[in-house]
């Protein structure tokens, strides 16, 4: 019998005393007010963390008007104590930001501190184990097979000693893809291939620029285009448009240093879809206190999705993942799409994020299954695939778009049919409970608010109302206290970057809504457990993912 079941009926006084139920009570209005404040900011293109990689590339290539000293200072400040750049503990997510930052500092060379920073960066790179990259893992950074060889070649030309060698498999795969991209006509504005143009392109064309002035919503690709376009016969309007895009992209991070940019911007459709999805996972999509901002976000999403689907924003081609999430939340709101753009991303029983991508994404298939189930369309083969992807410990991991197994697991549990997931829940419950940190939180590495919220959402969906489950009650109570303490902290640190792009990033508003939704769900579940235990009629607050 699984450990959590064995403890279901443990009602000893010492165990009960370990659960401070009173600490789990917090006014719902407080959480709802914070949610409304987050939702009120939507419509400005989206809020996202700053990118070391993209900022370094913009500093190298864009020649933005104005003083760039603050951006260089920001870049230097982001170097970690081990000499590298990037937040992850996985070296493959730190290579691109580290090499790009070193190139930017080397090419500027206007501060005596840069030399020490470059030496530390070289030492960091020499110490990294790059063996994972040789198998091209699903959770590899976007375009790593293109970006890393290009950066290494540029570093060699610049005389930088990187003290590292990329795996031959990665380099060979990148060369094949680069040749293919150069042969095909990937010049149309909005093409996903343009998002990594800085790593494969050398012939700029005016038609590559979107209406917003970007190449594939990418600051680094746009900066590289500007650098090559200045030496070609392009109109001043085109150059001005691209420069203006980079200027506006700096506003997406909330950073004060001019020239600091995100990895992608704008992301308004993505932000709307994922915020509504997070609210749905917590049963908040239909909450009357959020009716106005939810209605506004839904209208934004409905206006942005076409028969081809939805992408991060209108400046980038639609993708299967954002399309699936958008279709799911619109169905949950009660305004399902009349057309089905998702089918164009189907490849057998899988669903692709973009055409011609190297590998499918676990979370894209998860979201497609969810959207199709809500539309009443069969997807049994895809559901079977998801069950096959569950590991022996009951968890889903190795996703293409998020670095944490808690993200993939929580979204899989929300997407699969209630009957199927409940019949298979014990293994997943045990897997989650066994991985709770002593502090009360969860994390693939150190615990984070975001990942703890995912864990709470899984526990509540799988456990239902189990007033005698003291293991569950203690686990959720500990999680609530830890999340509550972080939420109330005056010196609350920024959310950790866990979403996979060219480097890891954080969609700030999306993650904040996930955090608050997890806090809300934990609070409500604990309150209802107390009410059931005392014989009172509980206040119902179901999740809306079914």
From TrEMBL:
Any one biological process term the GO annotation gives: diterpenoid biosynthetic process
Q: Which GO terms describe its molecular function?
A: magnesium ion binding; terpene synthase activity
Q: For this UniProt entry, which segments traverse the membrane? A: none
Q: Which InterPro entries match?
A: Terpene_synthase-like, Terpenoid_cyclase/PrenylTrfase
Q: Which PANTHER family match?
A: (E,E)-GERANYLLINALOOL SYNTHASE (PTHR31739:SF25), ENT-COPALYL DIPHOSPHATE SYNTHASE, CHLOROPLASTIC (PTHR31739)
> What is the official name of this protein in its record?
Squalene cyclase C-terminal domain-containing protein
Q: Which organism is it from?
A: Burkholderia mayonis
């Amino acid at each position: 019998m699984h450990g959590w079941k064995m403890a279901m009926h443990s009602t000893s006084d010492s165990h009960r005393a370990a659960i401070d139920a009173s600490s789990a009570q917090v006014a719902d209005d407080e959480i709802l007010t914070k949610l409304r404040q987050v939702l009120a900011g939507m419509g400005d293109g989206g809020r996202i963390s700053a990118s070391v990689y993209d900022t370094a590339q913009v500093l190298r290539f864009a020649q933005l008007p104005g003083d760039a000293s603050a951006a260089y200072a920001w870049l230097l400040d982001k170097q970690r104590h081990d000499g590298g750049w990037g937040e992850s503990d996985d070296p493959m997510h730190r290579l691109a930001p580290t090499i790009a930052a070193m190139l930017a500092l080397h090419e500027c060379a206007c501060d005596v501190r840069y030399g020490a920073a470059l030496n530390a960066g070289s030492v960091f790179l020499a110490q990294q184990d790059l063996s994972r990259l040789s198998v091209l893992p699903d959770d590899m950074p976007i375009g790593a097979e293109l970006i890393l060889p290009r950066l290494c070649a540029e570093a060699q030309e610049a005389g930088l000693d990187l003290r590292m060698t990329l795996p031959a498999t990665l380099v060979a795969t990148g060369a094949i893809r680069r040749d293919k991209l150069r042969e095909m006509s990937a010049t149309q504005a909005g093409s996903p291939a343009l998002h990594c143009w800085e790593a494969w392109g050398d012939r700029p064309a005016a038609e590559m620029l979107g209406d917003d002035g970007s190449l594939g919503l990418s600051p680094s690709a746009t900066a590289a285009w500007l650098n090559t376009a200045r030496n070609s016969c392009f109109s001043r309007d085109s150059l001005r448009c691209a420069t203006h895009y980079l200027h506006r992209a700096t506003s997406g991070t909330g950073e004060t240093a001019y020239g600091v940019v995100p990895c992608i911007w704008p992301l308004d459709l993505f932000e709307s879809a994922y915020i509504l999805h997070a609210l749905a996972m917590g049963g908040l999509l239909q909450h009357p206190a959020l009716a106005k901002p939810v209605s506004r976000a839904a209208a934004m999403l409905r206006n942005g999705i076409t028969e081809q689907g939805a992408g991060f924003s209108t400046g980038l081609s639609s993708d299967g993942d954002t399309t699936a999430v958008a279709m799911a939340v619109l169905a949950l709101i009660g305004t399902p799409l009349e057309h089905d753009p998702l089918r164009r991303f189907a490849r057998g029983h899988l669903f692709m994020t973009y055409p011609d991508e190297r590998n499918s994404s676990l979370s894209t298939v998860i979201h497609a299954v969810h959207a199709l189930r809500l539309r009443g369309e069969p997807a049994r083969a895809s559901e079977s695939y998801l069950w096959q992807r569950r590991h022996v410990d009951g968890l889903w991991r190795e996703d293409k778009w998020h670095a944490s197994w808690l993200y993939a697991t929580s979204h899989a549990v929300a997407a699969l049919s209630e009957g199927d997931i409940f019949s298979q829940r014990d293994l997943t419950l045990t897997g989650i409970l066994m991985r709770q940190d002593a502090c009360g939180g969860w994390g693939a590495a150190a615990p984070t608010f975001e990942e703890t919220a995912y864990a709470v959402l899984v526990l509540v969906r799988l456990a239902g109302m189990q007033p005698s489950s003291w293991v569950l009650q203690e686990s959720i109570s500990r999680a609530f206290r830890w999340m509550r303490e972080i939420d109330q902290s005056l010196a609350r640190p920024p959310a950790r970057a866990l979403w996979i792009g060219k480097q890891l990033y954080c969609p700030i508003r999306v993650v904040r809504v996930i955090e608050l939704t997890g806090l809300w769900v934990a609070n409500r579940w604990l309150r209802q457990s107390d009410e059931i235990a005392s014989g009172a009629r509980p206040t119902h607050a179901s999740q809306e993912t079914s």
